[in-house]
Every structure is written in structure tokens, then in C-alpha cells.
Specification:
Blueprint: E1 13-17, E2 24-25, H1 27-50, H2 81-91, E3 95-96, H3 98-103, H4 106-110, H5 114-119, E4 122-123, E5 127-130, E6 142-143, H6 146-158, E7 166-170, H7 176-189, H8 203-213, H9 222-227, E8 230-234, H10 238-241, H11 243-254, E9 258-262, H12 268-271, E10 272-274, H13 279-283, E11 287-288, E12 292-294, H14 301-318, H15 326-332, E13 333-334, H16 336-346, H17 351-355, H18 359-371, E14 375-379, H19 381-384, H20 389-402, E15 412-415, H21 422-427, H22 436-446, H23 458-466, E16 472-476, H24 480-483, H25 487-495, E17 499-504, E18 517-522, E19 530-532, E20 535-537, E21 539-542, E22 547-551, H26 565-577, H27 585-590, H28 592-602, H29 609-613, E23 619-620, H30 624-628, E24 638-639, E25 655-660, E26 665-666, E27 669-670, E28 680-683, E29 686-689, H31 691-696, E30 704-710, E31 716-726, E32 733-737, E33 762-768
Parallel strand pairs: 2-10, 3-4, 7-16, 8-9, 8-14, 9-12, 13-24, 14-15, 16-17, 17-18, 25-32, 29-31
Antiparallel strand pairs: 1-28, 5-6, 5-18, 10-11, 19-20, 21-22, 22-23, 25-33, 26-27, 29-32, 30-31, 30-33
Helix pairs in contact: 1-2, 6-26, 7-26, 8-20, 14-18, 14-20, 23-25
Bound molecules: ligand MGD (2 copies) and molybdenum atom.
């Protein structure tokens, strides 16, 4: 039997704290994943569902974007503990019905935790809330027909003075087919206002890679990881967020690779991995992964990579032709001389201060870098969510370029994506700054002139709503209010809208922060069968390494009223644009092969899409730098860049806070209240601080603090009542969970160029708690 949703909100601010662990996965992870799944869906459904995850003919895991091995190499259970939790969260047998909304006014729901909201189960019917703008609302969501719901959206959109007064947000679970239709709809309407979760995630990677190598995506495949001699994992916690990556790292290790981890926190998964697919991993000690752990200070990575690059140049000067790949640099790159001159002139600078590392540690890593003939650098949010993230990632690229480590086996850049189809959504045109070539092809295919003005990203959408310039907010998935920075500012911005619409599978915080009118439109998830007029459909997704493959749900839909995401967009488009539109929306809804045919003509690399999507292994998208050392930049070369070295300045007595994920959450979806590998149980309001820093601020382990962030304009923000945990993080640094800490991230604190919220560098002070 499946377990019931909790009746009340559990107490979340009195966690128990034990010792952090030093190994990830193992038998405990298997037991945990089965337990989580069975509570949501019972024993039989658990077995039937989990066996279809990431198998040919099954569905793509809705967890992370880590790729699957080729069909011949997959295990019977090609998922991980956290993938199982993601599946269980969607395949749950719990339901939110109209009776639920009749019991709970919006104001009541707003008082609940995100955890409680998510535990209520799957949304089953479209519902509408109508209230006064800004009133917060003690009204209720009430059932509404799909036709009326689309009619309301059409009314509000058609009443706008300009299509740019609407924004269309996307979260990265949306399939290629739905994403393509969604961006097409926005552009038919006349706007590029397509903010997406990527703006808060890997936008810095996309910006840096597009500028330097001409393609905003990673350049490695799984095979490259297996062949690498050195893998640097910087700013990433794969044990929790990409657990299947640990199998790849283990395999690379066994083939002789060495691993350097760069992180302010010692993360258990990178220390040691007990592979649940092998008897030795389940029962034995597992494999030690990290050879060298560099406990960097938050934001010190640019200085660190710059120093390694300086040392590479110095070594090259001492022994010409042995360190820098001269042939590659001459044939394929631009800007080497300027870069080398700037780096030499800068000298070691303040690298020890910026990184908090000892000289010997930097030197030891350098020896490994120099010895490696094929290096892969992997990274995630630890590199992307800082003010200077874009130059940081460009510095990583500089290192690989010096060594000729792009476009050869065993080497390359590996930004590890988050959401399972966030990369595919961008490929399908979900982008507020679309390239002209994409718009040209789209316009030619559908016979219209797409808008050319750049649209709004996430942060600029919030500003525009706050300032009354955007009046309709539409979200294809996600949890905008909880995921965005400066929670109170974002909430006030949403409340100013005339209409807010969420296409969702589960209830979340964003549904409780309404515009004058608000709609929740429930949809099918990945795990469910999708039958349209043209028969049973499948969708496609693109993983972090540019492999596109099919995903086919197997479970019956969670409710009879649910529509698929492509159907929602197609019907919305007909309601808003009227019946005579040049786009064949009805045919697209009936048969997704028709959507893929259009994509195959609009997006390069998707030729023969329908046939290739049906191959069990799917197909790999072309990537010039990886495939042929062709760099589609303006100059046709890869670019060295020499930005000044930056690192966060932290005034005395302050800490630099990073906001990160626990082991029991998927972004804003909280599965449970534990963070097993970090030794935290039964609560999320914790702040991890180095014992010496905590002592200096007068906070014993187990005491309670308010976190107060300080922004450059003099403003402060407060998150009250966090249990202080003495934890072995880097000196001067602190860590606490997102989304509870998003109130602390100022809206204007973003990365240069990418405009990604700087969620990993928030200057805070600890104050004795005003509440506990
Ligand atoms: N189970 C599960 N899986 C997920 C997600 C989830 O929430 N749950 N989220 C998905 C999404 S959308 C994403 S984007 C990814 C996120 O995957 P991660 O990026 O691994 O997620 P975070 O928890 O934000 O962890 C950031 C890591 O970077 C480190 N770090 C912080 N600041 C710095 C720094 O300045 N320098 C360095 N070198 N390291 C730093 C932190 O200590 C931490 O280990 O995971 C995806 N997969
Ligand atoms: N402070 C801080 N803030 C952050 C981050 C951080 O590290 N620190 N990380 C950022 C990152 S990397 C990201 S990617 C964003 C994430 O931002 P979002 O993608 O907006 O947030 P999620 O929590 O992933 O969205 C969860 C919701 O998606 C809906 N959903 C789930 N599956 C489906 C589906 O198949 N279809 C539809 N239509 N809806 C579905 C459910 O209703 C669920 O409640 O948050 C960002 N915010
Ligand atoms: Mo993400």
C-alpha cells in the first residue's frame, strides 16, 4: 500500500546532526529509493515503474540530465536513489482534487511549507482563482473547464497593449516537442519573452562557451570520461545531484584516470562510491574517487584556474614545446599572445587569498594537470552562480585550449546540466535572445516574421512584473516563485499581474502567489501514456552530452482530465491566435511526428528526426568543436580570453553563503527532511559554518542564528531561525539550503553577462535568532 500524505506540516527547524559521511550510495541508497517509491505508489507499481526508467522503450528519468550508457551497457536498474525519488514524486497515487481546493483557501495554502504542498499528490483538474490584485486572497481555486481556462488566457493576452506584456517561463522537464510548440506560440504572438530555468542555472556556461568555442554546450561523451587521464570536478555534488555520474567516474578511475575535486565542502559522493550495481559496491568498501581534494574558498575558482594557466605557460617557457599544444593553438585558436602576455604580467597575484589553498596543494594539482594527456573538466552550480561566473568558466576553457584538450578523445568541457531536458529546451528555441539564423528558419517554415527584439530573462521578467510592465505570467512547469531570487520581491511582482498561469503536475508555492486571476493547468508527466487523436505518442529529450532519444510513458494518466504539454500549447495557441493561423496546431496536437518533421527543417542536426528518434540509442547532435575541431565563432577559431581575476570581497565578520541542495530535494520539490551524506536529519533550516568562524561569531554548534544578507546598496534581508552546524567547510564560507534562503539573494546580485542570480555568493552575517 502507498502511504498517506502528512496531515499537518512537520516541524522542520529542530534537525538532528550527526557526523558527515565519507561514501555515497551502497545498499542504503537502494533501500531508501525503494522506500520512497513504495510510500508514494505501493510495491507493485514501484516495481513496474522503476524497471522502465531509462530503458529503450521506457521513459527518460525525470531527475537529472546525466546521459544513459549505450543500450548494450545499461543495467536492469539504470536509475539512482534520487531518480527513484523523482519518479515516485510523479507516479504517486496521491491526488489533489477539487474537494481539496474547496477545503483549503489560497491563503491557507500559502501558509503551508513547500514540502507539505508537494506531498498532497498529483493535480487532476484545471482550477481558477479570481480575486483582487494584491489582496493575497482568502478565496479558493475552483474547477474550470479547459475551454474556459484557455478562453481566459486568450482574453487577458488579447487585452494587452503589446505581446511583450506577457512572459512565458519554461522549466527544464518540458519535452523537445512541447518546447518547440511553446516557443513557436510565443513568437507567433510576437514576443521573445521566454525566460527559463536555465537563466538561473547553466546560463553562465552557455555564455562563456558560446563566446570561446562557439557552441554553448559540453564537448564530451561518456566515452571521453572513460578515456580521460584526469577529471577535474569543480563546483558540483554528483553524489546527490547526478548519482549516475559516480558510476562513470568509477569506470574512469578503473581505467586509470585521476580525479581532482574543487569544492568548499567535502562531498561524500566524491570521496568514495559504493556502486549499487555491483556486489562489491553494495556490500564492500566501494571505490575511492577523489585523488586530490582542493577545499577552495567560495568564488576562488577563477583565480585557481588562472594560476594553473600561468604555471603552464611558465613550464612551457622553461621547456618549449612540451606543455602547450602549439599545433592546436596555432591552427585552431585566436588571442593566445594577448592572453599569455596578460597572464604573465599578472603573476600569481592573490591566488592564496582568493582560494584559501596552500601553495603545495595548488602545485600538487598542477603536477597532475601537467602530466595528463587528456583532461575533462566537469562543473555545475558551484561555478555558474557567482558574479564572475562567466570569466571563471572562460578560464577553464583557456586551460583546455592551452593543452589542446578540446575535440580529442578523453578530453573536453563538461558542464553537467540539471533538469533532464533543459539542454533540449534551449535547442528547441526556448531563449530570450534567439540567434537570427534560428528565427529565419522558423519564419520560413511557418510563413511569418518572428519578433527580433530580445526578450526578458528570469531576472528581467521579475523586474518587469514588479514595475507593472508585464501583466500576464505563464509557466510551462517549474516553481518560479520559489526558484527565483529575492522571494519577497518576486512574490510582490507576481501579485501585480493580471493573470498568472501554471502548467503543472504538482502543487507548489507558485500556485499560492496569484495575480488578479490565476489558473493551474494539470498535465501528464514523463511516466504516463500519452494518447492523442493520432494514436499513442512519445516525446524526445536531449541529455547533457547532446544525445537525443525517445521517452515513452507507461503508466495510466493520473487523472482523466489531464492534457499533455503539447496539447496544452496547441489548444492555447488556437484560443489566442484564432482558427485561421498558419501553424497547423491541431495536426501537431494529434501527431507529434508532425512536430518533429517541422523541427527537422528548422533546427540543424535534426535531419531525419522521426526515424532517428526511434532508434533505441537515439542520436547524437553535431558539435563542431568536439567532432572536427571546427569552432563556429565569428573568427572560426576558439578564443583565449584574459579577464581580470575577481573573487568575492567579504567584509570582516561576514561570511560568504552558498545556497545549495540537500540530498532529499529536487530543486524546490522537497522529498524529505534529511541530508543523509551531510549527517543532517529531520530539518532543513540549518546553516553549515566552519567551527572557527562560528566560534569567532559567538555561535556554538546547536545554537540558532538569523541569516542577514548585506547588499552593496546598503539593504539587508533576513532569513530567521537557522540551527548552526559546525561543519568542515572552507574558512569564511557558509552553506544553507535553497529555496529557504532565496529571500537572502538580492534580485540585482547577478552574474555579469549571463545575468544568473549569484546564489552561491551571498554576503551574510549571523545574528542571534529572533525566533527559533
Ligand atoms: N537529486 C537531485 N538532483 C538534481 C537536482 C536536485 O535538486 N536534486 N537539481 C538538478 C539541477 S536543476 C541542477 S542545476 C543540478 C545541480 O547540481 P549541483 O551543482 O551539484 O547542485 P548544488 O547543490 O547547487 O551544489 C553545488 C556544489 O558546488 C559547490 N560550490 C559552491 N560554491 C562553490 C564555489 O565557489 N566553487 C566551487 N568549486 N564549488 C562550489 C557546493 O559545495 C556543492 O558541492 O542538479 C540536478 N540534479
Ligand atoms: N538560491 C538558489 N536558487 C536557485 C538555485 C540554487 O542553487 N540556489 N538553483 C537554480 C536552478 S539550477 C534551477 S534549474 C531552478 C529550478 O527552477 P524550476 O525549474 O522552476 O523549479 P523546480 O523546483 O524544478 O520545479 C518543480 C515544479 O515543476 C512542476 N513539474 C514537475 N514535472 C513537471 C512536468 O513534467 N511538467 C510540468 N508542466 N510541470 C512539472 C511541478 O509542479 C513542480 O512543483 O532554480 C534555481 N534557483
Ligand atoms: Mo538547474
Amino acid at each position: 500500500m502507498a502511504g498517506k500524505a502528512p496531515a499537518g506540516d512537520p516541524v522542520q527547524d529542530a534537525p538532528e546532526v550527526g557526523a558527515p559521511q565519507h561514501a555515497a550510495a551502497g545498499a542504503k541508497a537502494v533501500a531508501k529509493s525503494l522506500r520512497a517509491a513504495q510510500q508514494q505508489m505501493g510495491v507493485r507499481r514501484t516495481a513496474l515503474t522503476l524497471l522502465r526508467v531509462n530503458q529503450a522503450g521506457g521513459f527518460d528519468c525525470p531527475g537529472c540530465a546525466w546521459p544513459e550508457p549505450g543500450p548494450g551497457e545499461r543495467h536492469l536498474a539504470e536509475f539512482c536513489e534520487n531518480g527513484a525519488k523523482a519518479v515516485a514524486e510523479e507516479a504517486t497515487l496521491r491526488r489533489v482534487t477539487p474537494a481539496f481546493f474547496a477545503r483549503h483557501p489560497v491563503s491557507g495554502l500559502a501558509g503551508r511549507s513547500g514540502y507539505w504542498l508537494g506531498q498532497q499528490g498529483r493535480l487532476t483538474e484545471p482550477v481558477l482563482y479570481e480575486g483582487e490584485p494584491g489582496a493575497g486572497g482568502d478565496g479558493h481555486y475552483r474547477p474550470v473547464s479547459w475551454e474556459r481556462a484557455f478562453g481566459i488566457v486568450a482574453e487577458e493576452i488579447n487585452a494587452l497593449a503589446s505581446p511583450d506584456e506577457a512572459v512565458f517561463y519554461t522549466s527544464g522537464r518540458t519535452s523537445n516537442e512541447a518546447a518547440f510548440l511553446y516557443q513557436l506560440f510565443a513568437r507567433r504572438l510576437g514576443t521573445n519573452n521566454l525566460p527559463d530555468c536555465s537563466n538561473m542555472c547553466h546560463e553562465s556556461s552557455g555564455s562563456a562557451l558560446t563566446e570561446t568555442i562557439g557552441v554553448g554546450k559540453g564537448s564530451v561523451s561518456l566515452e571521453d570520461l572513460y578515456k580521460a587521464e584526469l577529471i577535474i570536478v569543480a563546483g558540483q555534488n554528483p553524489g546527490t545531484n547526478h548519482p549516475r555520474m559516480l558510476s562513470a567516474l568509477e569506470r574512469a578511475k578503473k581505467a586509470g584516470a585521476r580525479i581532482i575535486t574543487v569544492n568548499p565542502l567535502p562531498e561524500a559522493g566524491l570521496e568514495r562510491f559504493r556502486n549499487p550495481q555491483t556486489a562489491r559496491g553494495l556490500l564492500g568498501g566501494g571505490t575511492a574517487l577523489t585523488d586530490l581534494f582542493l577545499q577552495v574558498r567560495i568564488g576562488g575558482d577563477q583565480a585557481l584556474f588562472r594560476e594553473w594557466n600561468r604555471m603552464l605557460l611558465e613550464a612551457e617557457d622553461a621547456a618549449p614545446g612540451t606543455v602547450v599544444d602549439r599545433a592546436f593553438v596555432e591552427e585552431h585558436t585566436a588571442g593566445f599572445e594577448e592572453f599569455a602576455a596578460a597572464v604573465r604580467a599578472g603573476g600569481p597575484g592573490r591566488v592564496l587569498e582568493a582560494t584559501g589553498l596552500r601553495r603545495e596543494e595548488i602545485d600538487a594539482a598542477f603536477d597532475m594537470i601537467r602530466a595528463s594527456r587528456a583532461t575533462v573538466v566537469c562543473w555545475a552550480m558551484g561555478l555558474t552562480q557567482h558574479k564572475h561566473s562567466v570569466p571563471t568558466i572562460r578560464e577553464v576553457v583557456n586551460m583546455l585550449l592551452l593543452r589542446g584538450d578540446i575535440g580529442r578523445p578523453g578530453a573536453g568541457v563538461c558542464p553537467v546540466r540539471g533538469h533532464s531536458n533543459v539542454q533540449g529546451d534551449r535547442t528547441m528555441g526556448i531563449f530570450e535572445r534567439p540567434p537570427a539564423a534560428f528565427l529565419d528558419a522558423l519564419g520560413a517554415e511557418f510563413g511569418f516574421e518572428p519578433p527580433r527584439r530580445h526578450g526578458l530573462d528570469v531576472v528581467n521578467s521579475i523586474r518587469a512584473m514588479r514595475d507593472g510592465k508585464v501583466k500576464v505570467f505563464f509557466a510551462m512547469g517549474g516553481n518560479f516563485v520559489a526558484a527565483s531570487p529575492d522571494t519577497h520581491v518576486t512574490e510582490a511582482a507576481m501579485r501585480r499581474c493580471r493573470l498568472t498561469v501554471h502548467v503543472s503536475t504538482k502543487l507548489n508555492r507558485s500556485h499560492t502567489v496569484t495575480g488578479a486571476r490565476a489558473l493551474i493547468l494539470p498535465v501528464l508527466g514523463r511516466t504516463e501514456r500519452d494518447v492523442q487523436a493520432g494514436g499513442e505518442q512519445f516525446v524526445t529529450v536531449e541529455d547533457s552530452m547532446g544525445m537525443v532519444h525517445a521517452s515513452r510513458g507507461t503508466l495510466p494518466p493520473a487523472g482523466e482530465a489531464l492534457l499533455s504539454e503539447p496539447a496544452v500549447v496547441a489548444r492555447l495557441a488556437r484560443a489566442v491566435l484564432g482558427p485561421g493561423d498558419t501553424v497547423p496546431w491541431e495536426e501537431f496536437e494529434a501527431d507529434y511526428d508532425r512536430v518533429r518533421e517541422a523541427v527537422s527543417r528548422v533546427v540543424p542536426g535534426f535531419e531525419d528526426y522521426n526515424a532517428r528518434a526511434r532508434r533505441p540509442e537515439g542520436f547524437r547532435l553535431p558539435h563542431g568543436p568536439r567532432d572536427s575541431r571546427t569552432f563556429p565563432t565569428a573568427s572560426g577559431r576558439a578564443h583565449f580570453t584574459a579577464a581580470p581575476v575577481e573573487y568575492p570581497e567579504v567584509p570582516a565578520g561576514r561570511l560568504l553563503l552558498q545556497t545549495l541542495r540537500s540530498h532529499d530535494q529536487y530543486n524546490t520539490t522537497v522529498y524529505g527532511l534529511d541530508d543523509r551524506y551531510r549527517g543532517i536529519t529531520g530539518g532543513r533550516r540549518v546553516v553549515l559554518v566552519h567551527p572557527d568562524d562560528a566560534a569567532a561569531a559567538g555561535f556554538a554548534d546547536g545554537s540558532y542564528a538569523d541569516l542577514v544578507s548585506e547588499w552593496t546598496d546598503g539593504s539587508t534581508r533576513r532569513a530567521p531561525g537557522f540551527r548552526v552546524v559546525h561543519y568542515p567547510t572552507a574558512r569564511g564560507c557558509a552553506a544553507a539550503y535553497y529555496p529557504e534562503t532565496n529571500v537572502l539573494v538580492p534580485l540585482d546580485s547577478t552574474a555579469d553577462t549571463s545575468n544568473t542570480p549569484a546564489s552561491k555568493s551571498v554576503v551574510i552575517r549571523l545574528e542571534a535568532a529572533t525566533t527559533t
